[in-house]
């Protein structure tokens, strides 16, 4: 292993050389307190920055074992140090020449604490994976600047962001305990018969659609007495808040009173949130999936017959395929695909739903006979989902009181304050019956597992065996296919999409034909055994953890997807 001093001397000698000479520094270097790995050197100053790693022994990092002894606390400490590394790196980074010269960057994360590959802890030993822009002017190496960057700034970065001595232990402990409490609360939901819990005092409104931090002066959440429950956190002790029971729950209220804000907090309650977010103790069943209409999406071989039948021209809906789904067919496909993947809670907001998928009132039933209407609306299938499959639905509804008749619980939002109005809603339903005729069959209908052909997951493009590009959280290019994910609401970090794309490439290479649920089981099992590195061809620092549901969402929107027994 080469020393840090040797690296400094090499870089100084390279001063003024052509950029390609940087390739010679690839390797491993001993810095005393840590080891530096230079895994990949960029081809020019405008290319993707060079990939590097640092490894810090436990004896140097000196983090108390209590902060990494169990998987949840380890994840929390990794998250804390990742954020600290990013802050210090931004302070140290400086443009030192052309292109990305002088930049030190690590994975950026939001308000959620999710497993990732940028910062890893193993028995107290730390590894940080990040990128460095090696300095150059034009295509000439700035060797002395590179020596200062790697041999002076980098040790300072390690000291200030990875070693326990740089931090107040109480701050780190609070971070870890908050996330541990969040996970513990979520684990209690099923035993309590709940799909979600919103702690009293939570701040749900965000600053804006692009700023996920809590709104200053936001109204603290307070549970109505009828829905109040107490859960117990290992560090925070008893916590009171609103429990949303399993079954069918409506969220109603006037416009701008907080209905969608509550639902958005619940849909992201599948993830732990960092201290100060306001939603630290908003927790949701991990099997909850947001469902919406998605005009124009690709659908491949989905049995949407529980909702849609007898299409014009005799098109079958037992294995429905289209390259340009309508609002109703896309929402039906999204729902069935979520069930196929194992969802147990459906989250629906009428603002993003297809009206004809949600309801057909008695006047429309009188005007358009059922024989002429292929859609069976959700209102006629929602109880069947709960009673036959144990699938709960949480529905924001401000435009139709017909759902009062099928709901188990109705929560009204009045200026962001929740009220239990179930009794009033049921009285209204009894006084003013909808008189609509239930539609569809008396049973929900089949949920048919499909068998994707791994060969149809083609990552090739031209001479490249694997072509993956991620567009924020809204899309992936895989091979020659552009996959629009702008309507998949529970993706919160681009690293999740990078990891999902890599998982699909892994599955295409290693897994044979099997049902989609089994395919998902295999890939999630690989993560359980090997972590996200199971899908990486090299030490990769930009993968973020994901659920089987987002993995399925990407696969289902892949336009090249083919199924066993059918051809596109």
Write up what this structure looks like.
- The chain contains 14 helices and 24 strands.
- The chain is an alpha+beta fold and 568 residues long.
- It folds into three domains: 2-167, no CATH class; 190-448, Rossmann fold; 454-556, no CATH class.
- α3 (71-92) packs across α5 (169-187) and α12 (494-510) crosses α14.
- The radius of gyration is 26 Å and the shape is globular.
- The strands form six sheets. Strands 1, 2, 3, 4, 5, 6 and 7 form a seven-stranded mixed beta sheet that branches. Strands 15-18-19-13-20-21 form a six-stranded mixed beta sheet, with helices on both faces. A four-stranded antiparallel beta sheet has the order 11-12-10-14.
- The mean pLDDT is 95.
- β11 (228-233) and β12 (237-245) form a beta hairpin.
Short description:
The chain has 568 residues and is of the alpha+beta class. The chain folds into three domains: 2-167, no CATH class; 190-448, Rossmann fold, CATH 3.40.50.300; 454-556, no CATH class. The protein has helices at 4-13, 58-61, 71-92, 143-161, 169-187, 259-267, 327-341, 355-358, 362-367, 382-389, 422-431, 494-510, 516-530, 548-556; strands spanning 2-3, 27-30, 35-40, 50-56, 104-105, 119-122, 125-132, 136-137, 140-141, 194-199, 228-233, 237-245, 248-253, 282-284, 288-291, 299-302, 320-322, 345-349, 392-396, 409-414, 417-420, 468-471, 475-478, 481-484.
């Amino acid at each position: 292993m080469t020393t840090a001093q040797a690296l400094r001397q090499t870089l100084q000698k390279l001063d003024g050389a052509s950029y390609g000479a940087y390739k010679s520094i690839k390797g491993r270097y001993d810095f005393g307190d840590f080891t530096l790995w230079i895994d990949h050197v960029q081809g020019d100053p405008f290319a993707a920055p060079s990939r590097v790693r640092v490894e810090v022994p436990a004896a140097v990092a000196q983090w108390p074992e209590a902060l990494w002894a169990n998987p949840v606390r380890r994840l929390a400490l990794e998250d804390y140090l990742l954020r600290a590394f990013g802050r210090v790196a931004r302070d140290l980074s400086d443009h030192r020449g052309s292109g990305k010269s002088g930049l030190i960057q690590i994975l950026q994360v939001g308000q959620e604490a999710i497993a990732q590959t940028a910062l890893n802890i193993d028995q107290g030993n730390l590894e940080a994976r990040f990128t460095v822009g090696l300095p150059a002017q034009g295509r000439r190496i700035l060797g002395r600047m590179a020596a200062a960057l790697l041999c002076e700034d980098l040790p300072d970065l390690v000291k200030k962001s990875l070693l326990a001595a740089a931090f107040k232990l109480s701050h780190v402990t609070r971070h870890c305990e908050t996330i541990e409490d969040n996970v513990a609360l979520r684990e209690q939901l099923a035993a309590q018969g709940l799909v979600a819990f919103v702690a009293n005092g939570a701040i749900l409104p965000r600053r804006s659609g692009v700023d996920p931090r809590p709104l200053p002066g936001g109204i603290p959440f307070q549970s109505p007495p009828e829905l109040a429950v107490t859960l117990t956190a290992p560090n925070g002790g008893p916590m009171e808040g609103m429990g949303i029971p399993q079954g069918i729950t409506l969220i109603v209220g006037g416009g701008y009173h907080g209905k969608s804000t509550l639902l958005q907090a619940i849909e992201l309650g599948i993830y732990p949130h960092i201290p100060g977010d306001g939603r630290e103790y908003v927790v949701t069943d991990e099997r909850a999936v947001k469902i919406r209409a998605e005009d124009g999406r690709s659908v491949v071989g989905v049995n949407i017959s529980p909702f849609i039948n007898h299409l014009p021209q005799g098109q079958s809906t037992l294995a429905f395929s289209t390259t340009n789904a309508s609002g109703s067919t896309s929402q039906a496909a999204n729902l069935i695909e979520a069930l196929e993947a194992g969802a147990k809670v459906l989250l629906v907001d009428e603002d993003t739903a297809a009206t004809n998928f949600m309801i057909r009132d008695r006047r429309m039933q009188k005007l358009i006979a059922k024989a002429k209407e292929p859609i069976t609306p959700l209102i006629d299938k929602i109880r069947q989902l709960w009673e036959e499959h144990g699938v709960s639905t949480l529905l924001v509804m401000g435009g139709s009181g017909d759902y009062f008749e099928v709901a188990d619980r109705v929560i009204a939002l009045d200026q962001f304050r929740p009220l239990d109005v179930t009794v009033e809603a049921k009285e209204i339903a009894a006084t003013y019956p909808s008189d609509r005729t239930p539609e569809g069959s008396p049973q929900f209908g089949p949920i048919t597992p499909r068998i994707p052909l791994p060969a149809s997951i083609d990552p090739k493009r031209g001479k490249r065996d694997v072509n993956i590009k991620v567009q924020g959280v809204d899309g992936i290019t895989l091979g020659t296919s552009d996959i629009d994910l702008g309507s998949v609401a529970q993706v919160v970090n681009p690293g999740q999409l990078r990891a999902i794309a890599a998982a699909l490439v892994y599955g295409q290479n290693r897994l044979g034909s099997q049902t989609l649920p089994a395919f998902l089981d295999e890939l999630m099992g690989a993560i359980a055994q090997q972590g996200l590195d199971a899908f990486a061809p090299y030490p990769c620092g930009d993968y973020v953890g994901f659920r089987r549901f987002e993995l399925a969402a990407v696969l289902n929107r892949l336009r090249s997807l083919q199924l066993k027994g059918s051809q596109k």
